[in-house]
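Budget justification note: compute hours in this period were largely spent on complex prediction jobs such as the one shown. Inputs:
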Amino acid sequence: MQDYLEGLNPAQKEAVLNTEGPSLVIAGAGSGKTRVLTMRIAHLLTKGVAPYRILALTFTNKAAREMKGRISAIVGEGIARHLWMGTFHAIFSKILRIESKKLGYPSSYTIYDTQDSKNLIKSIVKNMKLDSKLYKPGEVLSRISGAKNDLITPQAYRNDTKRMDADRFSRKPLVHEIYARYVNECRKSGVMDFDDLLLNTNILFRDHPDVLEKYQDQFDYILVDEYQDTNLSQYLIVKKLAERHKNVCVVGDDAQSIYSFRGAKIENILSFRNDYPDYKLFKLEQNYRSTKNIVNAANSIIHRNSNQIHKTVFSEKEEGNRIRIFSAYSDVEEGIIVANDIFETQMRSQAAYEDFAILYRTNAQSRIMEEALRKKNMPYKIYGGFSFYQRKEIKDLLAYFRLVVNPNDDEALKRIINYPARGIGKTTMDKIELFAGNTGRSLWAILTNPALNNIGFNSGTIKKLKAFTEMILGFGQLLNKLPAYDIAVKIAEGSGMRKFFQTDTSIEGQSKLENVEELLNGIKEFSDERSEEGKEYNLVDFLEEVSLLTDQDTDKDEDKNKVTLMTIHSAKGLEFKYVYVVGVEDGLFPSPMAMESQKGLEEERRLFYVAVTRAKEQVSISYAKQRYKYGELSFSKPSRFIGEIDQQYLEIKGDALPGFGQKRSARPNSFRTRNSISSSPSKPSFNYKKISKGQATSNSTDFSGTAAGRLKEGMLVLHERFGRGKVLNVTGEAPNAKATVLFDNAGQKQLLLKFAKLKILN
DNA sequence: CTCCTATAGCTTTTT
DNA sequence: GCTATAGGAG
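Corresponding output:
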């Protein structure tokens, strides 16, 4: 039993064994953070602490599941099962369901996802007759979300001059009013959004000291993973719960704080010592994941940030390869370069596809990478973007479940009252919504009110509405009689959804049917698993689990041994032998949204740090000189972040960083950020080796500005990469003149003459 | 009321 | 390039 401590280094061992009192574990990238957390919990359990007295909070369901698995392996599944381990949202939604009555919510409250929230905001904006161009649902929601995470109620919002000024400044002075109505709507519908799960937990603990005490008592030990990414709401929950026993252990890395956009406060980790003056500090600085080159390069990046806890991350592994910088002519070519390189590396090193990851800043970049891989017949899996649970047919069926569980769930009702079509159209719904708005009731309350006949519907409409409500009520009758799976099947059948897809013989229709069947199978699996564990498994429980799932969490067997494509955000906590960071261009990464402020830029830099530190053996960074944005061609420069890496760790491929090698002395700082701090321990030396592919870049072939005017339709030209081709047409004015060229070997390309190095042959 | 087509507007990052 | 919406015909 004691052997679980073996193989830990002294710092790790300290962090595992010092279980009493407040602890701050600063864990550098790849330093075995998860290992310390699991061992610490396993250690507590072996010492005889009851599992239900341990609360372990993670950021993803996946992290929780993995940790639970590892702990199970040490102490046995029967014990690990009773740990309170999960995401903040999952754990506290469970507690809220138990205590919901105290807050005036039904215990069958349902959860709005981001889309539901946006839809609700949209209809509020419409009701208030505000300009929907100005009050964009996404923007309003992020204001509301920000307020909730700071525990600001609508009333407090009105008195908050900073927020009100900001809204006035962005010409949206009525956000506070939308917020107030939004809160009312949610309450009358008996729903909570993601932020409510945390906010209401705070309210619960504030207004019901007895409840707080109960949980304070229960949780002898509290552990928080990724503490640098907690927001104020989460921070306060932890603080309150830990007040009694003070056995709180937070683990994190300020250098990897990348979620401030959703309210995360890096200060939480920076000021832990102020909250718990008698805290113990453990620093995990040895990186076991990556080679020296990768760790050193990453350090040279992160050291440019100002606000951080000092630490020296080091590696004792071999030197390893340098970080490679690839320059691509276009976004499509970038994809091809990466796909080719993965193919070659995989052949040469006998590596598996699952050893490779392609990381990008925005989900929109995935498609091009996907196409490049598909062309080479390489297996891949994409995380993010369209997840299973975001497909329309799945959301629709889930909306039925929600409505059956909680008929006041207005967004669920609106979603499916006419799906499949049953002749209840917009006009009818507008009337009902107006009536509901005026009376402060939910849509369902109007529909089931005998006074429905007085609103002025014809008898046909009334009949249709009655049929609908009776159907839902019928399902509701089964709720306490049948297990989740059986009800789900009955709903899929009775709602007409199954039939709807069965009669749709198109390929899409068939795949939708398959998805519906897969969801039903999922419910079966869920029920079986839960009943084995002796836990609840009715439809409410399934809905709760599903509402808090992300597609990160749906790891299927058929997804084994595939190249992984994901955003850098979702890659946090993961590792791969070979990592390709693509689209590393100014205006994409760092994102233009973040480029204005030092704070924003530092967060982007941390994100870049996270990207680089995912790799065990090789990091490849690439950028494209031109790419399509919103379907328009646009031009980009390599990201400033590339220039920020200490050049001694780089290997420049091809013509990457043009104008940087030869003309270096003229503008040595062109890649350095304005905000780079002078105390940087790594003095960037610019004498990197330029590794040319042998093809000399001719200086007489440069097309720029007016020279483009000489190019005419029908001319034969030579391109340094694509070879010989024929000009099909020339459009636009310098400096944005474009030519379409049909190359003998590379096919048809659109070239921007400002960039393309073309030589006229005839 | 339903379905189809045209077009506006859009992208950070996610529990 | 893609999706969500508006507007028009049936």
